[in-house]
Amino acid sequence: MENMKNTSDKKKTAYIMVQGTMSNAGKSLIAAGLCRVFKQDGYRVCPFKSQNMALNSYVTKDNLEMGRAQVMQAEAAGISPSVYMNPILLKPTGDMKSQVIVNGRVYSDMNAKEYFADKQRFIPDIKHAIEVLSDEYEIIVIEGAGSPAEINLKQNDIVNMGMAELVDAPVILAADIDRGGVFAQLYGTVMLLEDDEKARIKGLVINKFRGDKTILDPGIEQIEDMLGIPVCGVLPYMDISLDDEDSLSERLNRADRGLIDIAVIRLDHISNFTDFNVFDEYKDVSVRYVRNPSKFGDPDMVIIPGSKNTIGDLAGLRKRGLDRKIIEYALKDKPIIGICGGYQMLGHEVIDSDDVEGGGKAKGLSLLPTDTYLTAQKKRELTDGVFADVTGLFSELAGVRYSGYEIHMGRSTVISEEDVSAFTGGSSGCCKGNVYGTYVHGIFDEDGVVDTVIRALYKSKGLKCDIEKTDHRAFKENQYDKLADMIRQYMDMDHIYRIMGLGS
Fold it and tell me: How many CB atoms lie within 10 A of CB 151?
């Protein structure tokens, strides 16, 4: 390819920014695909997003916290994730508030008005992060947030056009045709921008297209004439299994039931649902996200996921009657796994004496003999070990190695030793019968863990399991390569290289 990296001395860092006409227009995947293409072409490339709002987060090797989307993009680029790739992370906690995380550490809880008034103070952190990355990488792929045309938020913007101006980055604007009105999305977004901002947009991308592109061509010609900006890509609806950014994920709306049916409780403040993406690798296994009792059904396993507001989500379970469904399910001696906030909910009480979630205490589901004390100090660390004295259906996990990470504000204490066993190492989890709780996110990702769980579920139904041992990392690498192939096929990469100053 004419734009392949040459062997000359390192030049000034090149930037490309992916913005969208709305949230969930596909910015994260497009940015990841570009990272993979640039890596394949021999460049040292990294992702960057100055401000991310998401409840899916990750702990780096430095025990710092960042958004999962930039972790996924770093994997696509073949590098280790760093908080410099996401210097500001906002994690909604409810009541119009978010936990503000700066450079991987908790800064404060702030409501939207407070953050908007105060966000300029974080500009030095953003500048420092991008400068550190620019010293190490030849290309930086920047992702915007929401839409640059949110005119009520444009003052002191630090994540869309303000970020593009900071590093003088060309912008490609992505729109989601699957939601309809794609040309109105593109035209309206561009026309709401200032002239200097319009000039930064060097390409338009129509994402999630299904059907015959020739039907779309007349509209493409007209929008190019109207805006004077070329359409540099029409990306098809992609069947790619990679980590999603936030709760807008389409995964949460799945309703299909496979031979093995796993029900994940869809909490109001669900976090780190990427813990369950590994199950997508098995064709006869389905993962449904259940919000209402009427959709509960009779699953083969129930998972209560992480939560950014354990007490609030317990109240939500009771309000909808899901607490009774979960307890009835447990009385059938069927398997339930709680992860992080879900683990806390499985116990007797959650006590918030430090006013972490508004104070007070809440009664748990009383399926594990634990009490949880929420604390202002946040635990962030990578962890690994072997499963301990695992009881019940998943007893064959005992001795199997796991790895993952912990992100939580609180500690859980076993209040009765009767019939309870250690599940994961130290004080990170316990089990009783077929009820299992752990603070470890990513618990299913290590080779052998998810296979053991699925084999046990098949056995519990009297079914023969002929699955082969999976290599989760190899599967993800294949997905990144598949994504890059789609980008190369349906986007004009020569145009992308030219607007970055890297092509003739």
Answer: 10
For residue 402, what are its two tokens? 């796991």
DSSP three-state, residue 237 = coil
- Hey, do 18-242+478-499 and 260-462 end up sharing a CATH topology, with the first three levels equal? yes
Extended beta strands in 276-343, E state? 285-290, 301-304, 306-307, 336-339
499 neighbors 202 (Cβ within 8 angstroms): yes
Tell me if 414 sits within 8 A of 388, measured CB to CB.
no
Instruction: Give catalytic residue positions.
Output: 340, 441
Beta bridge partners of 110: 98
Query: Distance (Å, rounded) from C-alpha 382 to C-alpha 120?
Result: 31
Picking from 47-61, 239-253, 399-413, which range would have the lowest pLDDT averaged per residue? 239-253
Q: What is the pLDDT of residues 23-61, one digit of tens each?
A: 889 999 999 999 999 999 999 999 999 999 988 899 999
**Is 3.40.50.20 the CATH number for 18-242+478-499?**
no
The two structure tokens encoding residue 171: 């912008």
CATH assignment, 260-462: 3.40.50.880
| Global confidence as pTM | 0.89
DSSP code, position 75: H
In the numeric block, the tokens 């007893």 are attached to 395
Angle, helices 68-77/27-40, rounded to nearest 10 degrees: 20
Burial class (CB in 10 A: 0-12, 13-18, 19+), 291: middle
Sequence ranges of the domains in the chain: 18-242+478-499, 260-462
Nearest to 86 by CA among 116, 118, 56: 56
DSSP 454: H
Predicted confidence (pLDDT) at residue 16 exceeds the cutoff of 70? yes
